[in-house]
């Protein structure tokens, strides 16, 4: 075993490992994500896992920790098939000779900045997990599970001492349940996924133009008329909050006001700035319906509303949205215009500030602190509000400099289908920051945002995972942990492990392909979809199709993963081949090209029987031509052979043609094939 | 298209089709399951589906039918990728020129024997679904979805007139949530699966030795101490009942008394026949703890309990279990023995009858009718009770003859891992029945039983589906529908369609294999697991491993499907090959054998890295030897070549060795390979 060479303290272990020979990297590096602050690898056999494994708790343990330890035991048993003796770990059932001891000093509170640190020590004979709070212990249990290893003797845990704590106290995931409602189990399994990568804030975007998703006793028409029947009951809200709390996750509700308000106005048109009636929005984009900030009824309504919701949601913070007010209905409402004149309110931004101040009063009355999107920022707010930046880090820097706390979501918009590395490189406090140390402390962290226009309960997991794990690492691990290749290596491992929590990001892929082929053999379709990605950013909404909340999200573009790992691998193989055409990887390169060369002939008859696939037929044919072009270039490059003018022209035409998105997906192997062609041309004798 | 030849009425269409050439069978036969009572296929193009498709309701439609029609539209949109114009189908949104009209006369009641008939007429221009009740319309909508077809012009529905109604009024599925708790979403997706195959009774086995799963206000310790925290809240119970009702499914709760009562006695030991204290049962089998039928407290307790549950569960029937009373704690309790003497109660059976009569009084008081397992039967019960037969159809016949209604579960124990055809052949009223027509009417139907010892939320779907669809057909379709091959053909189609409802029976297979290989390539493991099945009946519980409620159910035996379709196919190929060694199918046969011949060399290195797989290592090696033996026999048979005595002895040894189950799975290709060897021997020149 090569691991003996690791007998010293490493900070951000993988950074160091990148200097080691590749063999050591693949056989001994740890698959932790997020990477802990400090790992000491001990020169020892490690802890051998067998069916005698048992766990005891010590110190101020509560039900949360006992449950978490039991869940850990079940997951370990599930992975290894080992029959452990303990059933439910409770204060009563603590074994006298435990192999693992969990020791905590106090019960953690679900507040910003609570201690989440832990120390995990694994020796040949014992596993010890120590933490100030039980929440810290929960984080340590996830690290422990990620350490499970296998060698020729069986399952073991490497001998390590890990000291860990998060870099940022706010590591969140926003799920928009308004655009597409997400059933309770979708939320629960994503909370489990969050806990697995040590995230601690679930931002629940509960109301928007397309739906109001909470049972409301004070204003029942909100859920009765504003939800199409798809809302969480108060009991379900409590169930989810308890589920999150059991995983050390805070739940921040967002009720976006005054814009994004169609669903409220369907129920209570008297809140609106236009006469109404309103009907539930079925399409996407920024809409006009907005609350009337000049009517006292609006504040009476919201006072009663927030009183109820403040009691339902225990967190100290309440998100009021405040974004994307286009002002149209304010501009065309005479009463509002008169109010602005009478009160010296110069513009809509100032009118919204007036509204926000009234909302702030209400929230304060009910013991809540305010968080809102960029737009709410103005310099007279109290110091404990939080600015949530969706527009960019500049806004964040500015508010931090003026003394306000902030969190970042710009750059973490996972709905825009960017690669994991794009988000991973996005640091809430970049190395070249102009902020002072004091100001930097005001940057609390960030949130990945799963906006709901283009996802359903079938596809949402694949849009959140595994990429969000890279964001979780950015927010937990040291800034210096930034190796892209190693991140991707560990991301694959974590992605697979997330399945044990019920997440469907891997398994729903084949399911969707089966449906697309009408249950024919999915192999050829998979080969194709493996190398496409949905179009990026907002392109999908800007193309010819008009999407609604009830459109089918079951097409190739929905099955396709946000990031093609096959294309990524292919790109690496191309680079390696150009560097050294005789490298062993070149076989893998030509194998891939040959598969693609032949794939269309297998896929074509499937498409003929599946009209839903017709939109990608020409792209499948393009993949074949691309592969032929790639193989031509490979052969030419290898033998320094001249490509004819005609061949070059044809290659260029093939590359150009293939670039056009169809069915709103794009082929991700064009750039590397172009690279191959260029290499072949420049390499001619 | 060959379908023009079907321009006439067929009863039980596939029966007829079996006489047609194979080409017609595979391209034109309908994939309906359960098969309707009557199908008339019309000589016409059928109804072409395009993005203009819309639906209107006519008659006494209620929210249930509007919701069901909307769900149908979404499923159709999801399969085809077509963007239909309608959002939510409501009374208001009814289009003026609908392509599909649904017409019902009244709202159906959720009672035994409610009218579930429907007539579905599909012409070139219109789809018409007529039904007496909305429940009948729900059944028709499922038939409509199963009819979606594809040809070179796109999606269409074949032109048919279907008149349909169930053979039996009681078509149930029992889910045991006591042995392993099943979260709300597991129940919901299985209710969707039931609705898809027209089942109408969800039998909810809610309490047993291992757990009491309902929040109880009158006796709160039941769920507080009897469930490990895994129970349904009253709100969740109501949610599930409403979900079932929306699908035309009745919910029958079972509270098993007086035996199977450990979880009750953990909470209230004063109910027990032994002094206690009791602790929750973690193992399987028939246990001693039983309520004391001689204490008045027992009846006071149950009176209060059933009063609460009778209000919570709206169905007219209440299942009281009553099975598997071993009498041990009664026999050793002096007070009970004295009571029996004092009251001239001769034996434990009579004592249980005394108990049941008291329970019946309570149920009657709260407006409920009683249903219980075989053991409750005795001839003084009122005529509206139902006997639920788990022990055999003899008991059912006997009670029907004595005037009692009955349902059958014997033969439908899907937890015993029998093939679909085993259950399919099991008719509640066999052709040779001795019952009069009057008596036959008392046989209401049957229930598939998913007992919970060996299933978790990960595996339960694969133990229920698709086999339960075959049982659903047995209970809905005419008795004469009994072609095994055609059933299997349609079962595969239905199985795939069940995925769109969220059922995990297909997709969790790969997920479990990924975990078993520790995320290595699963191809080789899949090739192996594809040809094994878990050991049958109660063998798994009788072998060396002691299973508990917290054991890992994540091993090969849990991933393996109850019925290997690969082995089934292989067996057919062997028969075809022996019949005609030059048939095209013989290539498929040798291809399979060659894959198995080489598989172990791929699987061995995976096993080396996955200790959880070691238990099947020798069996994987056996598969290789079996394949070698099979290939030898194939070559010999084809060329009338003599097998040497040594070869024959070696083949026999290989076959014998392979028969031994390991890891509690068994290889399913042994018998056909034995057949090949015998054929080769008898075919020698």
What labels would you give this structure?
homodimer, Chitobiase, domain 2, TIM Barrel, 4 domains, nine-stranded mixed beta sheet, seven-stranded mixed beta sheet, 21 strands
Task: Provide an overview of this structure.
The structure is a homodimer of 685-residue chains. Chain A has 685 residues and is an alpha/beta fold. Chain A has four domains: 2-164, Chitobiase, domain 2 (2-Layer Sandwich); 171-199 and 385-497, TIM Barrel, CATH 3.20.20; 209-230 and 253-376, TIM Barrel, CATH 3.20.20.80; 507-682, no CATH class. Chain A has 27 helices and 21 strands. In chain A, strands 11, 12, 13, 14, 15, 16, 17, 18 and 19 form a nine-stranded mixed beta sheet that branches. Chain A has a seven-stranded mixed beta sheet with strand order 1-2-10-6-7-5-4. A three-stranded antiparallel beta sheet of chain A has the order 3-9-8, with no helix packed on it. The longest helix of chain A has 25 residues, at 585-609. Chain A starts with 8 loop residues before the first strand and ends with a helix. The relative contact order of chain A is 0.08. Chains A and B meet through helix 3, helix 7, helix 18 and helix 19 of A and helix 3, helix 7, helix 18 and helix 19 of B.
